[in-house]
User: What shape does this take?
Amino acid sequence: MEIQIQELTKIYRNGGQRALNRINLTIKDGMFGLLGPNGAGKSTLMRILVTLMKPSAGNIYVNGKELNKNRKEIRKILGYLPQDFRFFAKYRTWEFLDYSARLAGLKNKAVRNKEVERLLEEVGLFDVRDRKASRLSGGMKRRLGIAQALVGDPKIVIVDEPTTGLDPDERIRFRNLLSKMAEKEMIIILSTHIVGDISSTCNNMALLNEGKLVYEGSPDRLLEMARNHVFQVSVSHFEFEEIKEKYQVISTIPSVNGWDVQLVADRLDQYNPRVIEPNLEHAYVYFMEYVIQSHEQS
Ligand SMILES: Nc1ncnc2c1ncn2[C@@H]1O[C@H](COP(=O)(O)OP(=O)(O)O)[C@@H](O)[C@H]1O
Ligand SMILES: [Mg+2]
Assistant: This one.
């Protein structure tokens, strides 16, 4: 599978400014992480990808076929979990999937039953299949959302901020579910504003900011860019106030004489800093604060 996005632009009629500004991006098999702060344009891009909305300009090709001209055909291989996913409160878990399967065109009851069973197993909801969907826990609801996106074995699955509001256990479980799926020959696009969701399970990622694509590549390369720009310092209360003014502070822990602080900076010549290995969160902050800024000035 390959999705090619060319010069994609979206201007909302009532909005005025560009929600997406000339995006060029190629996405191949595996898990693809779409990271960006709120309002960056992630949901807009996803809605266009699943043909719910048309772009203002630009094109998308799926395996070389223009999305806009082959909507019907391409929809058949798409699964989508919207950001604001809701389901009818009256349905039981299995009934909801049965309903989704009917919508997807599975008319034969026996075939549908089998598909529903497969999906319940796949996302770990078989034991609660008779429970009302509205009574499921937050994590289970999200997994039910994934299950409905997987009806009919899609080749491209698009999930929009699926981990928002989940507790850490559920978040890990969810991530594991997605990365297990990504072992197949398919594209999974996961959008998030939470850096921790983009783990090593994403072989590629993109960073959107104010409608622009500001980074595309592996999480590792982003990490590499932050190397030698993440510091740990032990400082007094007074120095800490100074540091907060000047640098991007990632974390602080109280110490005997003040604070132990992790910060991101282009360079740091005072406070006797120790350089530490960047994690993806450091790298994200470094990139947003220093790399993009300098791009925009030049
Ligand atoms: N239906 C809409 N009408 C007008 N503006 C919109 C609409 N949906 C989103 N926007 C605007 O487009 C920009 C991108 O939004 P969105 O794609 O939802 O970003 P994200 O999903 O990254 O938070 C934001 O400035 C948002 O306010
Ligand atoms: Mg969104």
